[in-house]
Amino acid sequence: MIETLRAAFVIARRDFTAIIFSKSFFFFLLGPLFPLGIGIAAGGLGSQVSRDIDNPVIGVALSPAEADKLLETRARLTRSLGSKSLPELVLLSNFEADEATIKAKLNSTKSLSAILSGTLARPVLTGSERDVNRWQGKISLMAETALSQPTPVEIETRLVGQTGSSSERNQLITAQAGQAILILLTMILAGMVLSNLVEEKTNKIIEILAAAIPMDAIFLGKLFAMLGMALVGIAVWTTTGLSVALLVGGNFDALPSPAVGWPIFGVLMIFYFSMAYLLLGSLFLGIGAMATTVREVQTLSMPVTMGQLLVFFLAYSSITKLGEPVEWFAVLFPFSSPFAMIARAAQMDNIWQHGLALLWQALFTMIIIRFSVMLFRRNVMKSGQAARKKGLLARVTGK
Amino acid sequence: MLAPDPEFAIEARNIVKRFDGEAAVDGIDLTIRKGSIFGILGPNGAGKTTTLRMLLGIIDPDEGERFLLGSPDPISKAHQVGYLPEERGLYQSMKAYDAIAFMGALRGLPLAEGRRRGRAMMEQHGLGAAIDKQIRQLSKGMAQTVQLLGTLVHDPDLIILDEPFSGLDALNQGKLERLIRAQADRGVTIIFSTHVIAHAERLCEEIAIIADGKIPFKGKVSDARDRLRPQVHLETRNLDGPWRSAIPADCQPLGHNWHFTLPESGVEPLLHALVEGGAGIESLSIERPGLHDAFVQIAGEAVARKMEADANNNGEEAA
User: Fold this and answer.
1) Which of A200, A211, A387 lies closest to B56 in CB terms?
2) Do B24 and A383 touch (CB under 8 A)?
3) Which residues of B touch A386 (CB under 8 A)?
4) Which of A77, A66, A319, A322 minimizes the C-alpha distance to A176?
5) Helix pair angle (A33-53, A294-317), 10° resolution
6) Interface membership of B85 toward A (CB under 8 Å)
7) Which residue of B has its CA nearest to A398?
8) Mean pLDDT lowest among A37-46, A132-141, A226-235
9) Interface test with A, best of B58, B163, B193 (most A CBs within 10 A)
10) A213 contacts in B (CB within 8 Å)?
11) Nearest residue on chain A to B151, judged by CA atoms?
12) Residue A394 with chain B: CB contacts under 8 Å
């Protein structure tokens, strides 16, 4: 028994010192910072995006005097209730408030959720069912207050199938869902690439491969094999999911249609997943290739996952900011580009931009592979005791 | 850059490789004739593997230039080259014949043809029962043979073997020597590195001795041996007489036996002086020095001792 304990101590001492004095232990120590930062970012970002998506604006097509009265009432009420408690009101001046014009205005103006017409005593609220149901109570409250009458004001409601605002909101939901699916799949599957070269290095096969074919081919081959595996997995999951949905009587017509239409959106999902996978995979393959042991790979996994989340946050935060600098940055920054572009596909109907984006992402994948290969050749594929003794950080930095 | 000579399978001109500022290979010049068996001799750490890796294009030299089968880009000639690295490695879950086919496919052999050849080669080398076994199920010696067959499966024009005898028992060393000779007979250029001088002496037409990243000798085995004078072993009935002036003055007898280096004048004058001088010759033999003696003379006693120790540590004494 004592001998067993002594032997266990020998093993424990070696492992403990090996871990503690490795440079990758530094990442481990930083570990708690990542979930903390991610949690804070996710919370803030989630509420910001939901605010951006759900920012109702109601057009006011009352007589000028009543419209002023209503706007004044809203301003007074928000001082005590808070600015987010009531929908924003926009005065529609010189507006012909007949039903057809109202519907046309709602279809053409994406910023308008509903239009209030009629009079304050007999207001008419036109909009999608969801928006009308949601805001008629508050409109009634503002009308009662504006009229200083104690009895409730009855709101006449007119429903339209879809307004510009509701279809935009629906497309945002599609964009969010598309992004979420992409990032989920990428996170599940791309991380596996990290350990992809460890077998070759452990088994010394890398020497045979490196002497026979260009290193770029080794990296590309590994990457495409993993991509193929990932696509097979996705095909199985999607088929299973759709089959189950059909069996339980799922209604696919109820899904909000993306701007480019479902067939193209589906194709773009596959392309953008592939590019996201290749981009992150090539980076992970490069980083993983520097690791010599499974332990180093495990240590690297957490910061890598956190890095993925940061990229997702960047893309997610830009979803409601089409055309703004932050959205352009997310589109151009290679790692967030596929996620930002799938959001664009849900919200913008022009196709050509996707061709450009895919080319840009493919180009960057090649650059990362070349860079990873260069690092690998320089810092790992060299003989000599000194090279083998080098730590992971030194191998990555080459110092 | 000078154009490579088509007569040579390998040309290296002043190649240098440094690791962390220290030169592992320090300005090596090497030419290896097509169709020859060439040995690179030296102890561990001398720079053999680094040199081979540079020649193969696994790593690039920091300085100098190298040509493999006439190309400055060795990987572009990979389909004509077979390489057995010092650190053996195979995918453990692969079947033996598939591992051979995979290595061939890496070098351009169609997979189906590689599988066919892999099966045939394993049968031919007495490994028929292991054809469908996974690599992890094979003994170390069998796995080494499978890897060697994978090195040859695509019929390369140039075979580079890094420490091929390492870890092999006497029987398998003999088999490997026969295999190398058979490949050479069909015109293949073979380069191998080794700690064991006997292998080089038996197999090679030319050798390079490498020590501390430099090549102090490169040439024919006979040229290396000719750098030393032959040794004379003489047994006489008489211990003194006029004949003593024919042998070196500092030569001391062990009983009636004398060992000394053959004088510059050669055998005939020595024999004449011994007979005429009344030595009473009981026996006389003249031994040509071995490659080991030449190695000691060229690389130094310390390097030779280190190389012998390396060979012993690797269980690689010559059969």
Assistant:
1) A211
2) yes
3) 19-20, 22
4) A319
5) 20
6) yes
7) B20
8) A37-46
9) B58
10) 75, 78, 106
11) A208
12) none
Pairing of strands B22-33, B8-19: antiparallel
- Give A226 to chain B, closest Cα distance, Å: 17
Q: Are B210 and B42 in contact (CB under 8 A)?
A: yes
Chain A environment of B87 (Cβ under 8 Å): 204, 207
The residue count for chain A: 399
Instruction: Please indicate whether, in this complex, the C-beta atoms of A383 and B56 are within 8 angstroms of each other.
Output: no
Locus of tokens 């000691």: B296
Query: Could you report how far apart the first and last alpha carbons of chain A are, in Å?
Result: 46
> A212-255: per-residue pLDDT in tens?
988 888 888 888 888 888 888 888 888 888 888 888 877 766 66
Could you give all domains of chain B from N- to C-terminal order, each with its CATH number?
8-220 (3.40.50.300), 229-287 (3.30.70)
Q: What distance in Å separates the CA atoms of residue A61 and residue A119, rounded to the nearest whole number?
A: 9
Asked if the Cβ–Cβ distance from B88 to A204 is below 8 Å, we say yes
User: Please, what's the b/e burial string for B109-128 (b: 16 or more CB within 10 A of its CB; e: otherwise)?
Assistant: beeeebbebbbbbbeeeebe
Q: What is the pLDDT of residue A52?
A: 59
Contact B201, B220 (CB under 8 A): no
Rounded average pLDDT over B42-68: 92
ipTM score above 0.95:
no
Lowest mean pLDDT across A127-136, B10-19, B128-137: A127-136
A190, A276 Cβ separation under 8 angstroms = yes
- Asked if A203's CB is within 8 angstroms of B89's CB, the reply is yes
- Put simply, the answer to whether A212 touches B106 (Cβ < 8 Å) is yes
Least CB–CB distance from B106: residue in A204, A209, A382: A209
For A270-291, how does the pLDDT look when each residue is reduced to its tens digit (9 = 90+)?
999 999 999 988 888 888 777 7
Rounded Cα distance, B58 and B74, in Å: 9
Amino acid at B266: G
What is the rounded CA–CA span in Å between residue B249 and residue B262? 13
